[in-house]
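Incident log, structure service

09:12 report received: a user says their structure output differs between two submissions of the same chain.
09:20 pulled the input from the user's history:
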Amino acid sequence: MCHKKKSKALAVVLGALLLCTVMSVGASANGSEFKDVSPDHWGYETISWAKESGIVDGYPDGTFKPEQSVGQTEFLAMLIRAYKPKGFSEQSSDNDWRTPYIQYGFKMGWGASYITPPASKLSSFPKPEFPEPRMYVAKLITNASGRSYGFDDSIRFLLDSGLSNGKTDNTVSGFQGNELLTRAEAVTFIKNVKSKLEMLYPAPERRETAYDPKTLTLSPFEAFPLFVQQPVIYGDYSHITLTTPSSGYNLIHDPSYTISGTVQKAVGEALIMTVEYWDKGEFISEKNLQIPITKGDFKTTIELSKPGIFRVAIYSKQEKATPNTDITKFYVEYKSK
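09:34 re-ran on a clean worker, output below:
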């Protein structure tokens, strides 16, 4: 009997020790793990979330510096790490940690949000990390939402779409665009965006427009269709007029899609066409085709592989060592019936 009591008591003690160990590990995993972010800090839970999600990693001395102004590339890195988009790698071609983030930002066309390039290889001094004013953050998030507006319109878009609630109130002035964003505010901003924006989008090509609240219900591809007619600057090299399509965004319900037009100027006896599929974060090449030019006209039918957004580009072949000239681009969205 005594032996049974001792065994039972030992089991209780071991169970208590095991519970304490689990609670200790859990508390450590859920904590911010930064020396300067205590549980009573207003941003503790969000900073902990950002740490656990691999969005922030703090400084070598174990601090997070929550009230320090966030750097321009620091915020860009937080945004990209939050989404872990396809086609992105943190491996750097130089010793500057910012390089892969900057390169991805420019690849997505977010340069209009004033992303500063990393240090020049001709310089022996690294470029400083500039603090990020809130209005620049608004422009970057707007670009990453597949849209392109000026500063005030970018802020209006964020407020209307729920990507931000402002700082003092839900107005452009209440957004406090000229104020710097702290690191704690930055992760709060990222968490809110992540909860509402499904994926990162490329910024629209070649233009910035006025914000129209009616476009909130449209996809970025529909709200910002491509220029279906080529810019005048390309006229000396090649020129075509499209009969189909006549718009930069085209919604269809049949996988067969016919493209046709007339050729005013071109090099060679065929045009080159590329078809890319939007795969939740980047355009993936699907096919490259040659379209014969017959008596100044061209016509071809493409078979779309699956429902979704396709980006179609038509090029004119150029002389040796000269890149093909982009004549026109447009979106085709295939929705099955």
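09:41 both user submissions now match this output. Likely a transient worker issue. Closing.
09:42 reviewer note: Residues 190 and 256 are 40 Å apart (CA to CA). The chain has two domains: 67-209, 225-334.
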